[in-house]
UniProtKB/TrEMBL annotation:
Residues 27-54 have a biased composition (Low complexity). Residues 15-68, 84-105 are annotated as: Disordered. It comes from Streptomyces broussonetiae. This is Sensor domain-containing protein.
Length: 251
């Protein structure tokens, strides 16, 4: 199905939308041109001072997450014509995640509940309901969460490892999930992980994208109980809004 072709919406019931705990919710920078000139003499070799900084400066053209207002870059009504975008129910909740068994599956349970091992510096949430087209009836909860670069990369790495190890399911609190099926994510952002979670009344698909140090969590389900796909246009448009904001802030 095309990235932008007719997407859209009817109604939908999702078991537990949004917010940090509870049930499931339903550019690369241009390369520098090669330099043809060569120095007339080799540069002098110097011994670095012990006072010199040891860490490299952040790459140019990339704004830190702290400089981006998540409320301004999260999808809003009108950003996608075929989707009804509203405030996410339960946005004010912040419930600790339940424990997963085996413990190696904890990152999957954390993502299911929109909870994180590190505390984000800011969050923003929305709900997108497809009203027509290929994704009609699919409801998607969107969470943006800002972290340090180290924390964002670790969350992605831990989730990727857990998805691979928990294919046969796991126990999440009082719930039993029978399958964690890895999916191919939309190729956007710096990296992404996608999977489908089965074992309860509302099967749900999840995608987590890292754009810089901002994590974009999307969970999709349909009220009929069938298997839903995270709508590609929602993923792409959300990532593009963050990329555009980062470019403006860094310029």
């Amino acid at each position: 199905m095309g990235l932008w072709a007719g997407l859209a919406a009817t109604t939908l019931l999702l078991a537990g939308c949004g917010g940090g705990g509870g049930d499931d919710d339903a550019g690369a920078p241009a390369d520098s041109p090669p330099t043809s000139e060569r120095p007339s003499a080799p540069p002098e070799t110097t011994t670095p001072s012990s006072d010199a900084p040891t860490s490299e400066p952040p790459p140019t053209g990339v704004a830190p997450a702290s400089d981006i207002n998540l409320d301004e870059v999260i999808l809003k009504p009108g950003d996608l014509a075929e989707f009804q975008i509203t405030e996410s129910p339960g946005d004010d909740r912040d419930t600790p995640p339940t424990k997963a068994g085996p413990a190696t599956c904890q990152p999957v349970e954390n993502l299911r509940l929109d909870a994180y091992t590190a505390t984000p510096s800011a969050t923003a949430r929305r709900f997108a309901l497809a009203t027509t087209g290929d994704y009609r009836g699919t409801g998607t909860t969107i969470t943006l969460a800002a972290f340090t670069a180290t924390d964002a990369e670790k969350i992605m790495s831990d989730l990727r490892s857990a998805v691979a190890k928990c294919a046969n399911g796991y126990e999440g609190g009082a719930l039993t999930f029978t399958e964690v099926r890895e999916l191919t994510p939309v190729p956007v952002g710096d990296e992404a992980v996608s999977f489908h979670l089965s074992g309860r009344a509302t099967p749900t698909s999840y995608t987590l994208v890292r754009q810089g140090s901002i994590l974009i969590r999307l969970s999709s389900a349909v009220g009929t109980g069938g298997e839903a796909e995270v709508p590609q246009p929602v993923v792409v448009q959300q990532v593009m809004k963050i990329q555009a904001a980062a470019a403006r802030t860094a310029s």
